Amino acid sequence: MYTMNNNIINVARLSIAGLRKDEALPVSIQFRFWDAWRRERFNEEIARIRHRVRGLSVDVVDQSTLLLNLIRGGVKAIALVKSIKPYIAKSLPDNVYLIVIVGKRDERETLTKILHRLGMRRGWLKQVFIKKLDEVITSNRLKFELLSLVYELRMYKGRIFTAAGTANFWPKGVESIKEALEEYLLPIERARGYYIFIKSLRFRLIKDSVGVGTYSVDRWGRITIAPRSDVDVILGILPTIAESILNNYTEYKLHYTVRVNRVRSYTTYYLEKASSIYLSAVDPGPDFFNAVKLMVGKPTIWNNRLIILPVEVGNPRLVSRIIDKRTGMGVTLIATYNGIRLLPAPGSVGIDAEMIDDVLAMFRNLVSE
Amino acid sequence: MSSEIKIKCRNPHEFLISVVYSLSYASTVRGPALHHSLLGLGYIFSALDIPTIFNISAPDFLLINTQHKTVIAVECKGDIVENSKLDKLKEKFSERVVDAVRSAVQDSAGEYIIEFVIHTFDIYGDYYAKVAHNINKEVGHKVLLWTTTAIPQVRADASTRGPVEYYTLKKYVSSSYVANHNDEDLDRLLTQGILISENDIVCNPLVDPDVSYQVLFYEVSEYILRAAISDRYRGQRVEIVKFVQNIKRDYQSHVKTDRLLDVVIDIFSIFPWLGEVRTSSYEILFKKRPRLDIEDFYNVREKIIGMSDNEAKRYVRELKLKRSKR
Known about the structure:
The complex is a heterodimer. Chain A has helices at residues 7-19, 36-40, 42-52, 105-117, 127-130, 133-138, 177-192, 231-235, 238-251, 286-296, 353-362, and strands at residues 27-34, 56-62, 65-72, 75-83, 96-102, 120-122, 143-157, 160-169, 194-207, 210-218, 223-225, 257-263, 266-272, 274-280, 300-302, 306-313, 318-324, 330-335, 339-344. Chain A is α+β, with helices and mostly antiparallel strands. Chain A folds into three domains: 7-122, TATA-Binding Protein; 127-219, no CATH class; 273-362, no CATH class. In chain A, strands 1, 2, 3, 4, 5, 6, 7, 8, 9, 10 and 11 form an eleven-stranded antiparallel sheet that branches. Chain A has a six-stranded antiparallel sheet with strand order 14-19-18-17-16-15. A two-stranded antiparallel ribbon of chain A has the order 12-13. The longest helix of chain A is centred in the middle third of the chain and has 16 residues, at 177-192. Chain A is globular. The mean pLDDT of chain A is 87. By secondary structure, chain B is an alpha+beta fold. Chain B contains ten helices and twelve strands. In chain B, the strands form two sheets. In chain B, strands 2, 3, 4, 5, 6, 7, 8 and 9 form an eight-stranded mixed sheet that branches. In chain B, strands 10-12-11 form a three-stranded antiparallel sheet. In chain B, β7 (153-157) and β8 form a beta hairpin. Chains A and B meet through β12, β13, β14, β16 and β17 of A and β1, β2, α3, β8 and α6 of B. β14 (274-280) of chain A pairs parallel with β1 (25-27) of chain B.
């Protein structure tokens, strides 16, 4: 759908080379979205964060680059935040940032939380993409060896999502994700009506019979490079991951802008760039509608993450507000016999991809991906 | 409400506003293309908020096209107007409104074409054609008429694989009443009719300046709940007037600021776990860690929304008193 400029690989390569002084340190690479209104609050937020996180220093390199340094108990970690606007097509969103974090796991996690606090939101990969990630990798003449697979076993009572539990799976002698799923995991899905939702994959890559390193990719499109692993090899898939994340972001972006114009004492509010998402039902009809109604037709807190407040429960139309308990963002859900429409609730100018992913998880068995 | 009307929002007036409001939303996913967006023709849904002191009754909303330099001022009518209220309706199309609109779009040179529209249900088309005709004569402005079907039609749609309920927004034309829009594309589109499906209709009750107290309470309380748990407001001190301005911006609402201020104060008194209003400094102090009581929140709101305006006000007053004693 979009052409990704290959310069992005060079940017990532140079950034890693510049930040990683020791090959024994792991590196993670990710794309995040940073909305303008959150960027504007950067100074205020970072002052508050620095007050709480000891050992954190911030270096604003230029308008599009930031460096966050964390020193804790003599252990160092560094995060680079760089706008990739110059390296991608003009039609793509201009709030995309490349994040490179070098350091040990705990420090990397702390820096990740800081980025989240600053309002840098993650994108996500579709399950159909993750389940075929090895095919993307092996097309670059590499051999793929799956080491572990972290998955969420989502339980459905009939078609209704009831609960989920995370599990780890260490396959032996499995060369593809498809093989791992078909041999070991899909039978569970078929026999008990569970859904296997892959959260992350850890794998080894072999090039010309020589192991080049160990890597992991998670559902949020974060690539982690283990110590002493070849960086160039994995960077080959970076544009594909970026493209997939950007496509999802564009496809599932829910936002609206209100421009305010004040002249004399008159105020005009212009509703601009308002978007909605339509999810079509796999099996349209009353059964689909009743299943949606069971989930969002009464007030509840779903999975301790989403607050559900029904507004209008009728037949064949249902309107509910879904609020993210962590961020306060809200979407209006309109369900009919044929599908679900999602719109940003007033005041929620931009909805996180993470929240959309949560809402999609709720209706996984009911709507087409 | 007339039994001949089958609508999706709380009242016919809100529904008629919401039909056009919904046409300003574009779908980002390959879904059923059910409507031609007015946005596609460059018309942006806008609300004009004129302070009470000016004593100008603004139309319900404006559709502003900066490229074509056209403003369409739309007044929605969900029912027949009593004769005694016809003068009030005429004020909406007065020269003072034209001046206010020109000021709002900064059109001192008079480049903008300002058109007036009455938007009603198809069943009232003939009645409002006569009203529009009279206004044309008295005020001297051309008033066009748009109608939306009062009862949706059920149609099979290939893209959704099932029957879908549609409403049709059209320009009213009869042998005795013909008026055209200056923008030919818009005129053509509205003459053909714009189909809008039931799952496309987004109700925005706060665009209606005369929204009832209970609806105001219902909507604003949910807005405050979301604000209270958001990064932006959690644990923050916010000027109440600024907060109310944000509500107006986010809903494109020209509900009077005083009414909104009162409702905001009522909501914080009833749900103190969200935060508190410091009347001395006129600030809202949002809780650092709001303890969500969703069940109570939902029950109170549901009770209020089912009441009449006066009942709701009385109930809120009593509840405030009861909760302040705790």
